[in-house]
## 1
Amino acid sequence: MKRVLHVVTAMAFGVLISGAAAWADMGAAAVPLKAAVGSKGETHNTEGIEHFKQGHWDKAKTHFMEAAKADPQSAEAHYNLALALDKAGDHKAATEHFKKAQELGQGNPEIQDSPILKAHLKMMK
């Protein structure tokens, strides 16, 4: 019985790790998006993109949060925040912001066709 428990635990851990690895693989190709011209969050979004490119996930996350706060209707700010949250390992919060980005960015194919967004939203179901 003890051996069965160890095997089941190992299998569950493997599934968890493979799911996280799949998100990480998709996240490697994902790049943050520029804010719409005139967005109140444009400056923070631009700063966040620069930090994201350098691998400064926490600083990027802070700027993307400020961009989303300044312009709550910015699909790009929510998408970028989700990317930073994903990189930081906060997949639950990332999924929430990917969902918001999908709702707000109906006309943006970069958001609608994003593999990492789709993976997060699929895991939500």
## 2
Amino acid sequence: MSSRGRARTGKVFWKLSISKARDDIFLHVKIPADIETAKQSKTDCIYKKGLTVQLYINVGSNLNNVHSFYMIIDNKNYQLNTLLDALIFCFQAYFALDIKYAPECQHL
């Protein structure tokens, strides 16, 4: 990541934002039946940028009363009880699997 807050993939640069970093780690799906559709559109968007799909956390239903968290790795869902458990699992998976952070999240 450059000091100017920009990320690069190949020859393409883009300006990073807090919302972009948040959207790269979290996927908010309001209706449980839409999880697979949301995962597919996230995957398609990432491939259009020329990147690979990284780990991310699926946050279900209403943000005021969230009761489901899923860690997505290789299109497999791992259900966790709390957001903290999901974040810990996410960072442990990055280290255990030796995965590079997505450009939007390299500052983390």
## 3
Amino acid sequence: MRRPCQPSRTQALGLPDLADHKRASEICLETETKTVRILVVDDHDIIRRGLRELLTMRQGWEVCGEAKTGREAVALAEQLQPEIVVMDVSMPELNGLEAARRIHEQFPRMGILILTLHFSDQLVRDIVAAGARAYILKSDTARDLVSAVEAVANRQTFFTPRAAEVLLDSFSRKGSELDAKVLARSRLTPREREIVHLLAEGKTSKEVGLALGISMKTAETHRANIMRKLEVHSVSEVVRYAVKNHIVEI
């Protein structure tokens, strides 16, 4: 009996066949003839493999490293110095937004492209505030990934029409009309946002301390300061804040 054909990794992701994608990529504008080194960040192995296949089809593009957590992404960005980071927004230990913020602060010329499963107006604003220059949905990866990386490699931005509309609307607002979520998020330091992420994952103060290399007492002090700043009284309220403000996704 003939064995059924096994789907490719890109087909397993719900993406078109690579041959179709290759034909589409051939019509893209050519970048300068130099190697573009790309760091791929996602906590799912199959997603990383699919992204690698799509990216390395383009001549001159090289996936120089892979990371599965935000913390690994920050460390590899410093170690490998890629031109571009392609990163999922929802990951363990440190989410893509916080990782992007840290990478951008340290390497402002490093291009960051954010991938996400869902679209929201607030998420678009947060992604831009974190320093990313491109944002695409995972469902649109086959169609948009090459064009988005092409744009970032040329120091340009890449956003869908809906995302661009959100950004234009945000830029047109007066300072007094800024979204309350953005103001609330800005109350927390980078370390506090990291702790919020760990608490939202269900980690205890002891586990937070071990993950960050600090004492349990210091972790508890941070947790108390976070609750005071956010005007909440329980970890469950901190988790709701984290979900609402896209520090974690569910």
## 4
Amino acid sequence: MSGRSRVLVSACLLGAEVRHHGGSARVESDVLKRWRDDERIVGVCPEVAGGLPSPRPPAEIRGARVISKEGRDVTREFRAGADQAVAIARELGIRVAVLKSRSPSCGIGQIYDGTFSGRLVPGMGVTASALEAAGVQVFDEFHLAEADAALLALDSDEGLGPGA
């Protein structure tokens, strides 16, 4: 890896079966393959890191709380997972993250509205917000090219461009 910048990636996007339904959201892309080959990826599932099992009931953000479909307040677990993701990013100097779209942890720009109706509203997941507040650039799986450009810009700024 030669000291090049690392990237935090939602574990479900890497194929880990950690989503609420017990499955993954694996993404196959040349960008992720290159990052894997370059040993840049640090995978994390904030919900599992925060103590939630997989499978688990789906959860959505309702106001300032995260509530499961069964009505359980899981805000504490979501915040604990966000704190762990931020701690990993700080420890490893990570400044770019690719997170699962629409997730109550990782969603960027849009999340479900808290009614379990499938309706999307503008918003950020708990972990995405925490990482952004910590200075990490956050992208979802639909913006891998932009995340790659940000990572390459960081390497260039540090004199670690291609071939470093």
